[in-house]
């Protein structure tokens, strides 16, 4: 006992904790026996415990944070240099007696009561305290706003917005975003076109905050950037083109359910935060880090509304229908994001076809119009099949591969009908194709994905960039 | 004035963090220059002289006036100037 009494102790409590209140008589006897060798830190109410004369106000939680307090009460024994030697938490009478060397400590109390969570463990508190007391973590330039500046307007004024309000990227929000991934903030993910500037995970987090992402989306955002930076996607050219195209993102695998993405009613429309903000984050990274600004390097004649954001999840409820990711070599339980250089939507209405043959002909006829009905082989396409149309194929015994094959077969067209001048239309294929039989799409140029609500005999075409293929952009996928 | 709001720069930090000036005109000749009188005494005389110089340099000049110097310009006036002019010169003080 005497030896234990020679040591210094720190006790961390909060009034809001019933266990701390319970042990108030113990705190009083410790204060009497240890006197100045005991320091009591209070997290919430500096007047607690009233029965002792000296308490340290730790409502800032600095001491608690620096000592990684997780539970109150915590009693720490300190060495001569006041560094912690060991600690006990909660109330365990026998343990406290051994720890303090006081044999009759807490005689009037029950034997055991678990402690409560330290205030440092409150939701969101860790990031706040890390910002205040932790080591400097950000390398991005800090921009101090004037008192008179509205934070939302300040983001517009500095050119950081796509035209819609962005969430102001405060250090706290960025720190929380970074917690959504185990990637290091200073890791360089690659060079972002068009300026080809090295980009860190931290910069991605800043832009993901602005896009409105939750931290749990951040791993998808990172994967989308990695996909966009794959050479075969040709992000630089896609950004610069006068054509309509921009990244269209399809998310497959368990992650889409985990973060609540929409693959059902209105999947390609508004209203789902994950769909909306993940697609937007990529666009903001291209704009802010890459310097890809409309009218600057972005020379789109008209653009398309998907350049704000175009991201959705595939409906994978039919286990016999392979997903887009599976077509691309991944497994059903892989989380994968695929990027396709595409435009807006062209609907396909077919409420009459009751067999696969008719429906495939119907879809092929609509697919003919991608880019131009007389232009073959330049633009890829993504065919978005609704659950009801999928059912027509499935109940007719067709697989996804059967559908794709039928579409290719149906679309194969004699060059004479497509060459420039044919049908009195100047536009068309060069004369050299006149004697050839032409495919509408390259061999790997038609991608089929399934999404949408369960009512509606409608499907849709997302036309691709007219510079599809090796000379421009090819679909890319990134597992994460 | 320091406020509590700090933001982290989302850009590649290739530009100064302050708000950027719009691109400057490369030449006055052929440009339409607005002269904005803010309704302070002698503003007209000052801008008359500026107008003469601008005309000599080959610019087209439009004249505008704020209703009162005590308030910021009405939105309609800002919009009118931005649509009609390539640049604007404001006669700020008396």
Describe the structure.
The complex is a heterodimer of chains A (480) and B (94). Chain A has 480 residues and is of the alpha+beta class. Chain A folds into three domains: 2-123, Glutaredoxin, CATH 3.40.30.10; 136-242 and 269-309, no CATH class; 317-480, no CATH class. Chain A is 30% helix and 19% strand. Chain A contains 17 helices and 21 strands. Chain A has helices spanning 2-5, 18-22, 24-34, 62-66, 93-100, 125-133, 151-157, 171-178, 201-211, 218-228, 235-240, 254-258, 273-288, 324-327, 356-367, 387-395, 400-411, and strands at 8-13, 38-42, 56-57, 71-72, 74-78, 84-89, 91-92, 112-113, 116-117, 142-144, 188-192, 197-200, 246-252, 311-313, 336-349, 381-385, 413-414, 437-438, 446-450, 458-464, 476-479. In chain A, the strands form six sheets. In chain A, strands 13, 14, 15, 16, 19, 20 and 21 form a seven-stranded mixed β-sheet that branches. In chain A, strands 3-2-1-5-6 form a five-stranded mixed β-sheet, with helices on one face. The longest helix of chain A is centred in the middle third of the chain and has 16 residues, at 273-288. Chain A is elongated and about 105 Å long. Chain B is of the alpha/beta class and 94 residues long. Chain B has a domain at 32-91. Helices cover 26% and strands 21% of the residues of chain B. Chain B has helices at residues 43-56, 75-84; strands spanning 6-8, 32-37, 60-65, 87-91. Chain B is extended. Classes of the chains: A alpha+beta (480), B alpha/beta (94). The interface between A and B is medium-sized, with 37 and 16 residues.
Number of strands of chain A: 21
Q: Structural class given helices, strands, pairing of chain B?
A: alpha/beta
Mean pLDDT of chain A: 95
Described by the principal axes of the CA atoms, the overall outline of chain B is extended
Q: Element order, helices and strands of chain B?
A: EEHEHE
Uncertain spans of chain B: none
Share of helical residues of chain B? 25-40%
Query: Which class do the helix and strand fractions of chain A yield?
Result: alpha+beta
Strand fraction of chain A:
15-25%
Give the CA-CA distance, first to last residue of chain A: 57 Å
Q: What profile does the largest beta sheet of chain B have?
A: 3 strands, parallel
**Strands of chain B, count:** 4
Tell me the helix content of chain A: 25-40%
Given as residue ranges, the uncertain stretches of chain A (5+ residues, pLDDT < 50) are none
Number of domains of chain A: 3
Q: What share of residues are in beta strands of chain B?
A: 15-25%
């Amino acid at each position: 006992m005497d030896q234990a009494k020679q040591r210094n102790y720190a006790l961390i409590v909060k009034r809001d904790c019933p266990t701390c209140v319970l042990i108030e008589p113990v705190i009083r006897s410790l204060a009497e026996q240890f006197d100045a060798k005991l320091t009591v830190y209070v997290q919430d109410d500096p007047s607690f415990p009233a029965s002792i004369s000296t308490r340290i106000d730790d409502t800032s939680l600095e001491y608690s944070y620096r000592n990684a307090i997780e539970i109150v009460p915590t009693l720490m024994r300190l060495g001569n240099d006041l560094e912690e030697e060991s600690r006990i938490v909660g109330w365990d009478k026998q343990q406290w007696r051994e720890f303090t060397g006081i044999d009759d400590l807490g005689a009037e109390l029950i034997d055991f009561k678990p402690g409560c969570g330290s205030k440092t463990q409150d939701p969101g508190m860790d990031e706040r305290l890390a910002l205040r007391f932790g080591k400097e973590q950000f390398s991005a330039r800090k921009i101090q706003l004037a008192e008179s500046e509205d934070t939302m307007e300040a983001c517009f004024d500095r050119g950081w917005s796509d035209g819609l309000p962005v969430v102001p990227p405060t250090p706290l929000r960025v720190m929380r975003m970074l917690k959504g991934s185990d990637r290091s903030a200073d890791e360089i993910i690659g060079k972002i076109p068009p300026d080809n500037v090295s980009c860190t995970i931290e910069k991605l987090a800043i832009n993901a905050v602005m896009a409105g992402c939750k931290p749990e989306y951040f791993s998808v955002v990172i994967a989308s950037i990695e996909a966009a930076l794959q050479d075969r996607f040709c992000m630089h050219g896609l950004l610069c083109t006068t054509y309509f195209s921009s990244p269209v993102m399809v998310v497959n695998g368990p992650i889409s359910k985990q973060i609540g993405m929409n693959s059902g009613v209105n999947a390609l429309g508004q209203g789902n935060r994950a769909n909306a903000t993940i697609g937007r984050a990529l666009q903001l990274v291209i704009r802010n880090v890459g310097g890809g600004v409309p009218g600057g390097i972005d020379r789109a004649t008209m653009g398309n509304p998907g350049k704000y954001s175009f991201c959705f999840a595939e409906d994978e409820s039919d286990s016999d229908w392979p997903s887009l990711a599976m077509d691309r070599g991944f497994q059903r339980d892989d989380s994968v994001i695929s990027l396709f250089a595409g435009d807006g939507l062209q609907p396909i209405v077919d409420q009459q076809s009751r067999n696969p043959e008719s429906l495939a002909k119907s879809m092929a006829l609509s697919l003919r119009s991608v880019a131009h009905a007389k232009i073959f082989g330049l633009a890829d396409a993504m065919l978005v099949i609704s659950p009801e149309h999928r059912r027509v194929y499935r109940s007719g015994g067709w697989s996804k591969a059967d559908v794709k094959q039928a579409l290719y077969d149906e679309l194969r067209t004699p060059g004479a009908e497509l060459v420039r001048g044919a049908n009195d239309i100047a536009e068309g294929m060069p004369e050299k194709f006149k004697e050839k039989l032409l495919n509408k799409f390259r061999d790997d140029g038609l991608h089929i994905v399934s999404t949408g609500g369960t009512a509606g005999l409608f499907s849709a075409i997302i036309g691709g960039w007219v510079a599809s293929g090796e000379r421009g952009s090819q679909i890319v996928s990134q597992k994460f | 004035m320091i406020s509590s709001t700090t933001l982290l720069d989302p850009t590649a930090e290739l530009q100064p963090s302050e708000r950027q000036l719009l691109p400057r005109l490369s030449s006055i000749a052929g440009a339409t220059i607005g002269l904005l009188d803010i309704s302070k005494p002698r503003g007209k005389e000052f801008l008359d002289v500026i107008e003469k110089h601008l005309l000599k340099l080959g610019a087209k000049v439009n004249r505008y006036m704020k209703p009162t110097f005590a308030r910021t310009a009405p939105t309609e006036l800002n919009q009118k100037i931005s649509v009609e002019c390539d640049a604007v010169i404001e006669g700020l003080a008396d």
